[in-house]
Structure prediction request, 296 residues.
Amino acid sequence: MNIPSADRETIRNLARFRYSLRRFLRFSEKAARSRGVTPQQHQLLLGVAGFTEDGAATISELAEFLQERNNSVVGLVERAAQAGLVRRRNAALDRRQVVVTLTARGARILRHLSRLHRDEVERVRAGFGAAGGVRAQTTARSARKAEP
Amino acid sequence: MNIPSADRETIRNLARFRYSLRRFLRFSEKAARSRGVTPQQHQLLLGVAGFTEDGAATISELAEFLQERNNSVVGLVERAAQAGLVRRRNAALDRRQVVVTLTARGARILRHLSRLHRDEVERVRAGFGAAGGVRAQTTARSARKAEP
DNA sequence: GGCATTAGATCGCACTGCGATCTATCTTAC
DNA sequence: GTAAGATAGATCGCAGTGCGATCTAATGCC
Prediction:
């Protein structure tokens, strides 16, 4: 394997960072499902309500927010619309554009999930800000018998 | 939609945070693919080399690191092994355990990717640490015509 | 008005993570 | 020692999801 110690240090830090990230995303995923929406739908709601100034977003804007291709977003919006989370309408000014807004139900779920996330994000931020130490993680690691 | 302004603030911050996250993950994904491995394989390499003290990890440890079920990890390791990125061997002490280590090729790729990621992570951390302002994002947002 | 551009939509596909289930190994109690 | 339970992985089939390729409709521009 022979990895130089400078790289080892970098790798160790990156691993901690990614582990922290995974745990956060996992938390978020469970939170979303606990409210009856998929993680992707939750992100969609967040993008619709929080990415722009006016609480509405086009497919392209959502694709930028989610960092996905717009055909992926089309499908996601379609399913979310069927689930009664968002509403679509054509922009009057440019009728190629599709403006997505939240339904009352979508807004309610987003509000609830956002409150749940607020605290957790602070924890993650604290972990990121620290010089590389997230203590709770080390304890979470399962003990493995030493190799002979 | 009627979302209270306190929630609006929270939602706005969460959206910024998630957008930053998505962009980072996107960057990471492209970096991995540019070196000929899938994003998941990259994370696997990182977990093997950086999650434990000894540069090796069992399936269960990797499942914890990746926050996935261990059957998912079994498949991931299988594919990575076939791609010549990692090696498996049974732990001598507890023969139920499977210890995963990096091949020379896996280590080389991980080293390269880690260097690429180091700077980017710092940028993300900076964005997280700031009181909620990631400026670059606003400019990246596509302009949408105002609704009439 | 005609041509390039842009915003979405449609289709089929491939990957990946999961639930359910199974086997092998280790641990504990008796 | 041995049977019962626990633990670590492996196997199988499936469903969700994001993507490439391609198409249509609306807009911009000269």
Q: What stands out?
A: Residues 5-34 of chain A form the longest helix (30 residues). Helices of chain A lie at 5-34, 39-50, 59-66, 70-82, 104-129, 135-140. The CA atoms of residues 19 and 137 of chain A lie 8 Å apart. Chain A touches chain B through 68 residues (CB under 8 Å).
